[in-house]
Amino acid sequence: MTPQRAYREWRTAKAAGYRSFDAMQRSVTRRRRLRGISFYGLLVAIVAGLVFLVLSGAFARGAEPFATGKRAAKFRKLMPLPEYRGNDVLFYTEREMPRCYQLFTETSTRVHDPRENVAAFPDGMPSNANREFPWGDPGGMHNVPDDVGYGVQFIKLPHDSQGRSKPIVWWYGSVYEPMAGHGYGTWLWRFPVGAVVGEMLVMHCPDGRDRVFEVRLRFRQPHEWAIGLFRPFGSADDLADAIVDVRPDWRSDPKLAAAVARLRSPRATRPESFVDRHVNPAVRLKYSIDVLPALPAKLVGTLLDRYEFVDTSGGTWRGDDCFAPTAKSFHVVPVGYAGHAIGNDNQACAKCHNTVGRSARSFTPGREWYGRVRGNDDIFSYHIFEPSSIGGGPVRIRPMPSVLAQHDKRKHRDADYPKLAKGKP
Fold first, then answer.
1. Is the pTM value of this prediction over 0.70?
2. Distance in angstroms (rounded) separating the CA atoms of residues 349 and 340
3. Do 42 and 135 share a domain, yes or no?
4. Using one digit for the tens of pLDDT, what is the confidence trace for 147-170?
């Protein structure tokens, strides 16, 4: 190396803050190596992220139609009704069975996620009925945030003389569409007589535990669904008695004494009304609201853990027109629960459930809705479609061995699969 070159290298290293040119070269080499590692690390992270999105999408769409393993075990443990904890009870949520509805045209029928804006309407204008009240959430849960409460659905099928499950049957048929004046091709399914479809309503509690506060059952009968409604406390008086039972010293606690007094008071509700104009003629509801008095969170947890669930169908929570309480803080029902407006009998449940499978355009003339209300056979949550079909792709029926079968008159007796009354699909 010439003296001139050595001098230039020394000046370059000095200007860059290095003691020598060799030290500068080592530093540059190290930075290049680190950049290479960072690039490959970033590449690996991107690939891993894509794999995660694909897998999580698969899980979100439901790899299995019903909960399995630890997830199923969790739901069985939560279930407060012993007869619905067995392995013949199939639990599912939207994770296993993502919601969808049928969208028909003159030439084809497809299934879509209600959250998809198929018609490209402006944001804030739901273009299918499955996003709106009363079809968007289980009755009374529309004001309950997801981080406060959630629902778990389940099915229990009857057995034949050989001990085999009688399956849900499906077929492709035609249903008359009033707005079009003719029928459209539609996938239909029907539960066997003796089937039970239910929903377990669950709260996230402050102590980190999940607790059930209500179980709803629907029993498939020859021409209708009958209901069962199970809660730990059927009335305000029942809850007051339970507080007294758990806390014998309740009179010495002014807050507990006030809570018991309010629960036993005949004048604790306020009247409200609601008009649902989706249906023609409009449904008009008059009811009363009972906001529960605050209780210590630990006491609420004890009450939910200790008391057996009883069938409260046909009764009221308070008076003649308050069917459930609501709450402003953690209580025996979640914050925002609106079961007070929903009757506890077959006719009250049918007001919403008998809209299943109907064209959304039949509810509000002139409304730019499309597609059908999700579900079939008066059950919203269950459907027969492969999750990969949701979104407008080719429709595939989801394999559900021993649960779902294509209708065959030679195998499936009419007596086991009668139509619901009033010509329901």
1. yes
2. 13
3. no
4. 899 999 999 999 998 889 999 999
